[in-house]
Amino acid sequence: MSPAQHHHRRELIANLRALAAFLDAHPLLPVPRYGPVRVSVHPLYDTDASTEAEAIAEVERIATLLGTTPTVQYGHHVASVALGSVHYQAVAITQAAMDRRAALESYRDVIALDAIEGA
Predict the structure, then answer these.
(1) What is the spatial distance between Cα 54 and Cα 69, in angstroms, rounded to a whole number?
(2) Which element (helix H / strand E) includes 55?
(3) What is the pLDDT of residues 57-89, one digit of tens each?
(4) Contact at 8 Å (CB) between 97 and 74?
(5) Element (H, E) at 100
(6) Cβ atoms within 10 A of the Cβ of 40, count?
(7) Which helix (H) or strand (E) holds 62?
(8) CA-to-CA distance for 54 and 46, rounded, in angstroms?
């Protein structure tokens, strides 16, 4: 880990602790009631992985460190651990999955639904 990466890691951890302390000191502030809070790592952006294969391998490596097995669904490779309602996850999304999503979204502007009367 480079000195810059180490500094960023320490700063992120300190900021997470500061957020927890801030929320603890301000009990009138709402916090999410439903669903987890996620810390997501994306190997192509957050690690030294530079190819899709390296990003998938990084998710597998992280899964090993977490003591879990990565899930693979629809081109999403995910390793995660839940600490109550807080989740840490590493996610690699294949280019094929992103291309499928882009193709699906490409129809968005050409479909117009008729207004439902009384709605």
Answers:
(1) 17
(2) helix 52-66
(3) 999 999 999 999 999 999 999 999 999 999 999
(4) yes
(5) helix 95-105
(6) 12
(7) helix 52-66
(8) 12
